[in-house]
Amino acid sequence: MEIKEFQELIHQIYLTRDLQRGADRTFLWFLEEVGELTRAYRRKEDNLGSEMADVIAWLASMANLLGIDLEAELLKKYPRVCPLCSSLPCTCPFR
Amino acid sequence: MEIKEFQELIHQIYLTRDLQRGADRTFLWFLEEVGELTRAYRRKEDNLGSEMADVIAWLASMANLLGIDLEAELLKKYPRVCPLCSSLPCTCPFR
């Protein structure tokens, strides 16, 4: 599935509710999902993939509310090389 | 670009470094990026799309380290309907 297609799916399922909730409260929900993922990772639970999906879905809701095209932003920031050293694989000093 | 293709791109650019850093410290970096996105949103900065891209990229690094297929998880969790009410658009009680 294309990134753009997933963002459009979240638009179709949730935009009306996201608009009703507003950006601030939708962002809080995104952060709640980040918290759930953190807890699942810390506890070594087996639902990490599902929690990662929720984080991306709520990020897509935020992007829809703010008129941001996630696929375009990803391709702009990561144009098939590291954005800092412009190499593939990355050759930046290790951090 | 397919979600799977983006995860594979992050694998090619960063897997060696992600393995060297390890999952715990990579997760901390993901959380740092969530913090940067939160600050940019709170301050109404114009780099929100770029910060969202970083959050997704670090999530892809974590997924690579943990052997999680993000595209498969997204399709499993959001099978073109809301996972709770199974409707499109979502008809759950408003939250």
Q: Would you write up a description of this structure?
A:
2 copies of one chain form a homodimer. Chain A is 69% helix and 0% strand. The first copy, chain A, is an all-alpha fold.
Which properties best describe this structure?
mainly alpha, homodimer, 69% helix, 95 residues
In short:
The structure is a homodimer of 95-residue chains. With 95 residues, chain A is an all-alpha fold. Chain A has helices at 3-21, 23-42, 48-66, 70-77.
Give the topology string of chain A: H per helix, E per strand. Answer: HHHH
Q: Biggest interface, and residues per chain?
A: A-B, 51 and 51 residues
Compute the CA-based radius of gyration of chain A.
Answer: 16 Å
> What does the overall shape of chain A look like?
globular
* Annotation, overall tally of beta strands of chain A: 0
Averaged pLDDT of chain A: 96
The level of helicity of chain A is 55-70%
Show the helix and strand layout:
The structure is a homodimer of 95-residue chains.
Chain A: H1 3-21, H2 23-42, H3 48-66, H4 70-77
Helix pairs in contact in A: 1-3, 2-3
